[in-house]
Specification:
With about 150 residues, the chain is mainly alpha-helical. About 85% of the residues lie in helices and about 0% in strands. It has one domain. It starts with a helix and ends with a helix. About 10% of the residues have low confidence.
Length: about 150
């Protein structure tokens, strides 16, 4: 009977070990499933980031192309606007210079007579210094314009 009791005890121990091994096997299988799921999620996340990285590079390339196109367009606009503006500026300077000359001539020659303008001949001016004064004023005006340009 002692032998039977020992065998029963051994049998109980073996069953307990079997139960523990089954529990460990179940835990290991669950752990392996979890690792497989996490590995699958990692692969999906890596694929998503790779796709997003590709899209980001494409968007960046497109942005660079648009920036170059904008710079090209602005260069054309600046060039095409600069030419007329400099022409207008030059015309304004010419008109301004013409107005200065007219004012200078009016100051030097005096008011117009009823018969029209006085002659440009120096001998018809009211004093002998007028002709020299007009010439000096014109030379000074031209000199000041050439040094300011």
């Amino acid at each position: 009977m002692n032998h039977v009791h020992r065998n029963l005890h051994q049998l109980a121990e073996k069953q307990k070990q079997i139960a523990e091994l089954k529990l460990q096997q179940t835990q290991t299988e669950n752990r392996n499933r979890l690792i497989s799921i996490l590995l699958g999620i990692t692969v999906v996340v890596v694929a998503a980031f790779s796709f997003l990285g590709l899209r980001l590079r494409q968007a960046n390339t497109r942005l660079q192309q648009l920036t170059q196109a904008r710079e090209y367009f602005l260069g054309i606009v600046a060039h095409n606007v600069r030419r007329p503006l400099s022409s207008y500026h030059g015309m304004a300077e010419m008109v301004n210079d013409a107005l200065k000359i007219i004012r200078l001539l009016r100051r030097c020659r005096g008011p117009l007579t009823n018969r029209g303008r006085k002659s440009n001949n120096c001998s018809t001016m009211s004093s002998p210094g007028h002709c020299l004064s007009v010439k000096n004023c014109l030379i000074n005006l031209c000199f000041s314009h050439s040094t300011s340009a």
